[in-house]
Write a structure and sequence with these properties.
With about 675 residues, the chain is of the alpha/beta class. Helices cover about 60% and strands about 5% of the residues. The chain is built from 33 helices and twelve strands. It has an eight-stranded mixed β-sheet with strand order 1-8-7-2-3-6-5-4. A two-stranded parallel sheet has the order 9-10. Helix 18 crosses helix 24. It is flat and about 90 Å long. It starts with a helix and ends with a helix.
Length: about 675
């Protein structure tokens, strides 16, 4: 009877599973789902491919984790929950790149996570997460439980893949990994044990620089079409190649991104264009026909210019984004207003080509933040022709500042009109909101209203990346002007932070700026810049000159005063006592003076020779030997020995020549000085 009941339960369980699979299949194309289900039930998970790697062997330690993320991990761990770093941050650490953010996943549910932190909130409907505010940062914490509930249907498809006899926590991590978008994003890092868990050969794909989905790409992109944009973004930033499966699916499903929400489109595009991979992202969007959907005007421009690209006639749009990539990165991103402003500026030039000098002044005023300085800079630098077609119509230096102000204002108005066009349905898929439109138009308001009295108040020509990331208008205008100036002048920066002479800050001198850049590069782990190398070379030259002058001075003294053999003996004696370099220099100079005056001491020595030999020779010898052994300074030697000798000499002088006190006083002073020289010569002999 028991056997029949067990068989009945298994049959009912199997029927429920098949029912769920059929419901899941209705959301997909029938043929694709049949292939997927057939493959999944015939495929078994090879547990031998699961890898646990010591992170320290791959160069990853807990010291690389920012303090806010580390605090979140420690609090969750102290409450008995398992907590890991997951996704893109582990991927970027393995590639020696700066992660955009550090995401945490834990065995606690969302309510338990929220109870652990005072400033936290749960956001999201489809994939809810808990955002934790700590130490000025926002850490996104997800739960294993959330992903497991959301992927219930897919897990039924992958039911036969669950391995038997595996560790419970391994099973939890594996179940989570199969729901992720790409293999390189399915890695878990436990900083407490220094372990990286890899269930899908993600580390191997990273080594091959290959992007691969965990399930068939068509199915993965059908589930979430935003993965198409995310895959393009990751490939553009890291230089990854697509497998054939992904390449085919992207071409087939590119139009599905129109189903995405505007805010999601804007977020993905901002990640592409504001984090240092704008140029390569534009190329990939165009390759997979996504640029025609999102930015049809610029897609048509690129198609038109594709056959006309030469070294003498580059595409201005790609040059603008090339220079943008030189200024921003994952750890120093820009706000969306910057790249939307660049797109609008370029569209205005294509729609109505401008004189090169007007563009020079337009960019220079944005960069310098003052009308007069901007015009002066443009008149001094705008000498060579600008070779961009069709954006630039020619070059004619306008002499009147009033006429020039009118031309620049007209260009600014044209740019604002192009910003407005991005919010209209005629521009393609509308993803630019009215709020974004207003924020971008404010960048160019200063060139429309009272342009000649414009003063930004910015005192330095160094980018404030904190303000740039927050969308500060003054900083955004400054960087926008810099990008345009670099584009039309062809003066590309060799490294991101290289500063030209005209770009030096007004409140700092050149050495201060070079020191600032050197320190910043060292913090980021970069190679020394040319400015830093130049600074180091200058310091070495100063020290070389200083030491050469000292050596020259010593050589002069050596030639004039002391024989070479005696100098070598002095250096050897002092070296044996291991004196510091500064004290060595002082003592060597003093010995030179003692020996220089030794010739004058012979006459005085003959006068007092008999007295010294009778009353103090034995004591003098003992004290001199003791001083030589302990390497006392000349001042200490004088204090230890000569006073007793001088006292006896004074008594003898007063008894024999008491009538001549002035003579005795002068003689005592002279003898005191000469006796010190005697001791030094004895010290040398010992």
């Amino acid at each position: 009877m028991a056997i029949l009941l067990q068989a009945k339960d298994r049959l009912l369980s199997r029927l429920k599973s098949l029912t769920k699979i059929q419901r899941f299949n209705h959301t997909l194309e029938p043929q694709m789902c049949r292939e997927m289900c057939s493959d999944s039930f015939n495929q078994e998970v090879d547990v031998s491919n699961w890898k646990t790697v010591d992170s320290r062997n791959l160069g990853i330690t807990r010291a690389m984790i920012p303090q806010p993320s580390w605090v979140v991990l420690k609090i969750l761990k102290s409450q008995g929950f398992q907590a890991y770093l997951v996704g893109g941050c582990v991927r970027d650490l393995l590639l020696r790149r700066v992660p955009k953010d550090f995401d945490v996943i834990t065995t606690a549910n969302l309510k338990q996570i929220r109870r652990q932190f005072h400033r936290s909130e749960i956001i999201g409907r489809r994939f809810p997460i808990c955002r934790v505010h700590i130490k000025g940062s926002v850490i996104e914490v997800s739960s294993f439980e959330t992903v497991a509930k959301h992927g219930e249907g897919k897990e039924m498809v992958l039911l036969s893949q669950i391995p038997y006899g595996c560790d419970e926590i391994d099973l939890v991590r594996w179940r989570n990994s199969i729901h992720r978008d790409f293999t390189i994003n399915s890695l878990f890092f436990d900083p407490f044990l220094n372990k990286i868990y890899d269930y899908a050969n993600g580390i191997s794909d990273l080594r091959c620089l290959k992007l691969r989905t965990l399930i068939p790409a068509y199915l993965s992109f059908t589930e979430d079409c935003a993965r198409i944009l995310r895959g393009l973004r990751i490939a553009a930033r890291l230089g990854l190649s697509f497998c054939k499966d992904i390449d085919t699916a992207m071409h087939s499903l590119s139009s599905s991104i129109e189903r995405l929400d505007k805010s999601r489109i804007m977020m993905e595009l901002n990640y592409m264009l504001s984090y240092g991979a704008a140029e390569s992202s534009i190329c990939l969007l165009r390759r997979y026909n996504l640029l025609k959907i999102l930015l049809p005007f610029h897609a048509a421009y690129l198609d038109q210019q594709a056959g006309k690209i030469t070294a003498e006639n580059p595409m201005m749009l790609m040059r603008l984004f090339f220079n943008l990539d030189k200024l921003v990165s994952c750890d120093r991103p820009a706000d969306y207003t910057l790249w939307v402003g660049l797109l609008s500026f370029h569209q205005a030039l294509v729609s109505d080509p401008q004189d090169a000098f007007v563009v020079w002044v337009f960019a220079s005023v944005l960069y310098h933040g003052k009308w007069k300085e901007g015009v002066k800079f443009a008149r001094d630098r705008a000498k060579e022709p600008v070779k961009f077609v069709p954006e630039i119509s020619g070059f004619s230096e306008i002499e009147s500042d009033e006429q020039l102000a009118v031309k620049v204002t007209e260009l600014a108005l044209s740019v604002q009109d192009c910003v407005n066009d991005l919010t209209k349905a005629s521009s393609g898929y509308v993803f630019v909101s009215k709020k974004i439109e207003r924020n971008v138009q404010q960048i160019f308001d200063v060139l429309v209203n009272s342009i000649e009295s414009y003063n930004s108040g910015k005192r330095s020509h160094i980018i404030d990346y904190d303000m740039l990331g927050k969308g500060n208008l003054v900083e955004t205008r400054f960087v926008l002007g810099k990008i345009i100036l670099k584009t039309i002048s062809g003066g590309l920066v060799a490294g991101e932070e290289e500063i030209d002479e005209e770009e030096m800050p007004e409140v700092l001198d050149k050495d201060s700026v070079e020191n600032y850049l050197a320190k910043k590069n060292r913090k980021r782990g970069l190679q020394p810049s040319s400015a830093e190398l130049k600074l180091k070379t200058a310091k070495k030259c100063k020290w070389t000159e200083k030491f050469s002058s000292i050596n020259h001075e010593l050589s002069m003294n050596k030639e004039d005063v002391v024989p070479k053999e005696e100098v070598e003996e002095i250096h050897k004696a002092v070296k044996n006592c291991q004196l510091p370099d500064k004290e060595l220099k002082v003592r060597t100079t003093e010995k030179h003076k003692w020996i220089e005056n030794s010739c004058h001491f012979d006459q005085e020595l003959s006068i007092n020779e008999e007295l010294v030999q009778k009353e103090g020779s034995q004591q003098l010898g003992e004290e001199t030997q003791k001083a030589a052994k302990t390497c006392q300074s000349p001042e200490e030697e004088i204090k230890v020995n000569p006073e007793k000798i001088l006292e006896k000499k004074d008594r003898h002088s007063l008894s024999t020549e008491g009538t001549n006190k002035k003579r005795d006083k002068q003689k005592r002073a002279d003898n005191k000085k000469k006796n010190g020289l005697l001791l030094s010569s004895l010290f040398k002999e010992k």
